[in-house]
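sry for the spam today, last one i promise. struct tokens for design, 258 residues
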């Protein structure tokens, strides 16, 4: 698959407004789920023009992860952990469509849908909190392409969703054009999920790089190591604060460049 993550190194700097507030204070505020599901008109930068998809509306409530799965879709991955500071394990869910009409030239271009559900206080199940439909779709026509989402049959893959310290990370695997990862970290603050971290790693011109942007401390760290050396060079840069990107608004398939 050829996505923007494999064609060039992302030099991405996003931005935030106010400093994070206490998670427990946020948990006390009512959450209005953002369940907008726009039709995707595909203008992918890969080898294929993938079919247009109308995304389903997820249920507002569910007793478990499977209850949120739309008809014709499968629950591909899930992660569990407290995201809103109430001490209860919330869910991050990654769904994949299984529509045979989205298989083009033997390539499964079926879309993904990423959703977050908060655990109900009374233990009765979960409430849909947010969703995003912009995960890049497979478009690589070469044999055995490595997509941005782990193959469910992969025995040594660790998954694309992680929850730690009250935040969740979405991990994109770079394609076989270039090793490395592109990672997004979101935290629930200001009554919404905001992008607080971004990481991009790979190889460029005989040099491995690992660049991260921390939007809580407003620092960029760039680590570069020649492939024939074990001596990395690290550069720290102070960033100018700007408004943060949010989970429901960010386009993961077309991240802005600066």
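last one done:
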């Amino acid at each position: 698959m050829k996505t923007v993550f494999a064609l060039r190194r992302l030099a991405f700097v996003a931005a935030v407004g106010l400093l994070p507030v206490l998670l427990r204070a946020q948990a006390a505020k009512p959450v209005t789920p953002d369940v907008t599901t726009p039709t995707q008109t595909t203008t992918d930068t890969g080898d294929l023009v993938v079919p247009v998809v109308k995304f389903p509306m997820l249920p507002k409530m569910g007793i478990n992860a499977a209850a949120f799965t739309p008809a014709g879709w499968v629950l591909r991955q899930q992660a569990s952990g407290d995201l809103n500071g109430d001490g209860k394990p919330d869910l991050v869910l990654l769904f994949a469509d299984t529509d045979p009409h989205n298989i083009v030239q033997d390539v499964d271009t079926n879309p993904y849908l990423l959703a977050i559900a908060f655990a109900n206080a009374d233990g009765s199940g979960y409430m849909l909190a947010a969703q995003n439909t912009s995960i890049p779709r497979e478009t690589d026509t070469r044999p055995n392409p490595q997509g941005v989402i782990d193959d469910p049959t992969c025995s040594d893959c660790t998954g694309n969703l992680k929850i730690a310290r009250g935040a969740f990370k979405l991990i994109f695997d770079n394609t076989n054009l270039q090793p490395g990862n592109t990672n997004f970290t979101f935290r629930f603050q200001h009554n919404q999920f905001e992008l607080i971290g971004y990481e991009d790693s790979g190889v460029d011109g005989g040099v491995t790089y690992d660049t991260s942007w921390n939007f809580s401390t407003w620092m960029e760290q760039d680590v570069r190591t020649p492939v024939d050396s074990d001596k990395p060079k690290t550069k720290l840069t102070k960033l100018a604060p700007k408004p943060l990107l949010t989970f429901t608004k960010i386009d993961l398939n077309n991240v802005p460049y600066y």
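Residues 4-238 form one domain. ok im logging off now
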